[in-house]
Amino acid sequence: MTQFTPGPLDLRRRRRPGALLSVALLAALLAAALLAAAPLAAQETYPPVTVDIAFIAHARAPAPPYVLDAAPPGEGADGAKLALQDDSTTGAFLNQTFSLLDVELGKDDKPTDAAKPLLAQGIRLFVSALPADETLALADALKSSGAILFNAGATDDSLRGVDCRSNLFHTAPSRAMLTDALAQVLAVRRWSKVLLVPGPGDGDKAYAQAFRASAKKFGLKIAAEKPWTFGPLARARSDSITEAAALIFARGVEVDMIVVADENADFGDYILYRTAEPRLVAGTQGLAPTSWSPTHTAYGAEQLQNRFIRMAKRRMRPIDYQAWMAVRAIGEAVTELRASDPAKISADMKKPTFNLAIFKGLAASFRPWNQQLRQGILLAQPMSLVALAPLPEFLHQYNTLDTLGADREESACPLKATP
Amino acid sequence: MTARFALALLALACAAAPARAYTIYVTDEKGNTITLIDSDTLAVKQTVSSGRRPRGVMTSPDGKLLYVCASDDDGIQVFETATMKLLRTLESGPDPEQFTMNKAGNLLYIANEDNAEVTILDVVKNQVLANVSVGVEPEGMALSPDGAMLVATSETTNMAHFIDANTFRRIDNVLVDKRPRYALFTPDGAGVWVSSEVGGTVAVIDAATRKILKKLRFDVPGLTPEEVQPVGMRITRDGNTVFVALGPANRVAVVDAHTFEIRKYLLVGQRVWHLALTPDEKHLFTANGNSNDVSVIDVANLKVIKSIPAGAAPLGVASSPD
After folding, report:
1. Of A58, A103, A190, B35, which one is least surrounded by beta carbons within 10 A?
2. Domain count along chain A
3. What's the CATH number where A367 sits?
4. Does the pTM exceed 0.80?
């Protein structure tokens, strides 16, 4: 991708017209086919509603060859497209037309700049897969126009806490939800002594912090903490088979489990099988809590996996799934409301009656106190699903999904005060 | 007069006779088998290999044939019930999940889950008569007792689609709660019950006006609303009682079909999917996906009397006819 200064023309060029056209065309064809088969009564009963959604993310940078499972082009956007097909099918029966604008930003492009022409076009529904700071800036830039933003990318707890926003919804799970899910499994297995290994990145530190809180919540003991200070490994690993002596930094630490906080996938995979004593690894690698995994096929998930593979010619990744949930949430609200007004959608989604079928058993819904989508969390290793949290051993007075992440009482989000 | 008298006598004789032994057929999604259970002895008679991921199951009206959706093989297998030999595989369209059949036994109405379509298949000619576009992930299929109206539920579109069974045109689409999985006509054809797995409700729809008359919720003591996920249903021939399988709530609700009062929750195996009533309505069998068994309910006393192991992840269950 070349550098560019975002402006209306440039943006239009960057919208991957081929891909967009195909989605728009598909939706239109689908609608035409369905309406042709349906009698006119359906059209007469329902007033026409148009729903325009924009998906914003940075283009995925080409990865070096030693990254075996690099983020593919279209990550996130493909999930949004699949959800748009689902929404459009329902919409065809109800005289509702959905469209999706896929905005791919260059490395240095600001989402807030990209949003301006979209707002000018009248778009008020946004889905993003962006880092926390850009997500927050975008939500604030959208606020005055009444637009709402679905965060399908950033897991930062701050966005659900002190930095929460009334026009910002989260379909990405928070780090606290992920580490709570992991802690539930360790607690049930009685693997309660943990060595925590945080990486050097800010995300790693935040993940480690979330795990510390989860350990406390579920009665695990962090027997030791050893930050990863041995420099980047992934590249080194690619140059030769690194067969150094067993990692001695974990030697003599009596634990059941090593929990790694390595969001950039640099060293976490390296630790397993290379420690002095035999130790299991979990966290960002090893047994990993995640919103979605190819290993998950129960609760009808196989259908979603198959539909995604057919459409995108690759497997669905967590960011795809999180974008899919966001566009589906919009679709469900529009179906219920017969309207696409963002204020109405926002209010509808916060009602206790709103829920979403997300192929993980329990219905998902938004927590009114921080607008986080409560959802089950998978615990997966690369080729096998180990558990689905919340585990049945954990109960809750209102909704067992609220055993994952910040509950109402714990939430630092000022929104929780508003009725 | 004499003929009628004879019929009445025959009916009496049937009623008074000891329980007839029916065969209960259970499909298991992960074991790729059909388990045959004797409804009198409540013992497994036979286990037969099926196609991959067997789900929907039913017998022909005369009981001579057994139809099984082999979802991952994209076909419907036809077994001869007398020998349990596979006779042929029908062109069902991709990923058939559930189906229903007309009384004449020549037409199957199939939900193609992966394809957003309903396929109407002539089983005698093995020929597709029509494909009807419906919402995403169609599943539940029901035919009105007079054979004129077909209902298909679509799980992701959250609708019950009403289809004219003669012209194969969609007449109406009724929005219900999330993930509708099963549709059931009342014996008089006036009502359609639709279970919504994720919504946790059952909608009772007036078949003539397509208005929702009632939405049933199931307040199971000790469980959160999210854990109650209605799926399979059966109704007694007198139209008075509906049984609703509640999925991971591990219970079957017994509902008064007129007052909508929930009379009882029966504790069965884990993740109860589909149900089958024997034609004499003595027993109700439930396929329990997570405990890999079938629970047997004594219908007269509303008591669970036995569990019978039935393959790996049992899902569908059907009884032989009278």
Report:
1. A190
2. 2
3. 3.40.50.2300
4. yes
B139 and chain A in contact, CB less than 8 A: no
Binary contact (A37, B169; C-beta < 8 A)? yes
Element holding A275 (H helix, E strand): none
A152 and A181 fall within a common domain: no
Q: Is residue B164 a contact partner of residue B130, using CB atoms and an 8 Å limit?
A: no
Assigned token pair, B121 = 């298949």
Same domain, A162 and A197: no
- Residue among A111, A170, A97 at smallest CA distance from A334: A97
Looking at beta carbons, which residues of chain B come within 8 Å of A306? 114
Residue range A246-288, pLDDT digits in tens: 567 788 889 999 999 999 988 898 888 888 889 999 999 999 9
- Which positions ≥6 away from A27 have C-beta within 8 Å? A84, A85, A88, A97, A98, A99
Local structure of residue A189 (DSSP, 8 states): H
Q: From the CA of A357, how many Å to the nearest CA of chain B?
A: 6
User: Number of helices (H) and strands (E), helices first, in chain B?
Assistant: 1, 28
State which amino acid sits at residue A118.
L
CB A359 within 8 A of CB A385: no
Burial class from Cβ neighbours inside 10 Å (0-12, 13-18, 19+) for residue B104 reads exposed
Give me the domain span that covers residue B142: 20-319
Residue A335 identity (one-letter amino acid)? T
What would the pLDDT profile of A347-386 be if each residue is shown by its tens digit?
Answer: 999 999 999 999 999 999 999 999 999 999 999 999 999 9
Asked whether residue A249 is assigned to any structural domain, the reply reads yes
Cβ pair B156:A86 closer than 8 A? yes
Q: Check whether residue A159 and residue A303 sit in a common domain.
A: yes
Q: Do A166 and A59 sit in the same domain of this protein?
A: yes
Domain boundary residue among A290, A310, A340?
A290
Interface of B with A in 102-121 (CB under 8 A): 113-114, 116
From residue A9, give the alpha-carbon distance in Å to each of A24, A118, A136, A302, B43: 20, 12, 25, 40, 73
- CATH number, domain containing residue B220: 2.130.10.10
Domain-located, residue A418: no
Domain that holds residue A97: 49-173+293-379+393-399
Geometric angle at alpha carbon A299, from A207 and A257, rounded to 5°:
30
A162 with A301, same domain: the answer is yes
List strands edge to edge, sheet with B314-319: B43-49, B33-38, B23-28, B314-319
